Amino acid sequence: MNTQNLSEYPDILTIEDVKAILRIGTNSAYRLLRSGSIYYLRIEKNIRVPKACLEDYLRTASKPGEEVMRDV
Asked: Using the 8-state DSSP alphabet, how is residue 56 labeled?
């Protein structure tokens, strides 16, 4: 994932945005959120992910010697 592409997205992401950025499916995206790997906000029935939190996940998940997907 090229983080330069993240600049094209708003500061608050939808689950659809997260799926597109990470190129994963719906179930995998929800698993990442439920596991606590990516912090999210629930606004009424909607899930929103601050872009900074997704950037943090991408930074920590892509450290050398660490697997990209953790127990999801």
From this structure: H
List Cβ<8 Å contacts ≥24 apart for 57-61: 57/32, 58/1, 58/3, 61/37
**Tokens 């190129």 sit on residue:** 23
Per-residue model confidence as pLDDT tens digits over 4-52: 578 899 999 999 999 999 999 999 999 999 999 999 999 999 999 999 9
Q: Tell me the CATH number at 14.
A: 3.90.105
Residue 64 has pLDDT above 90, yes or no: no
| Separation CA 39–CA 42 (nearest Å) | 10
pTM equals 0.78
Q: Which domain holds residue 39?
A: 3-61
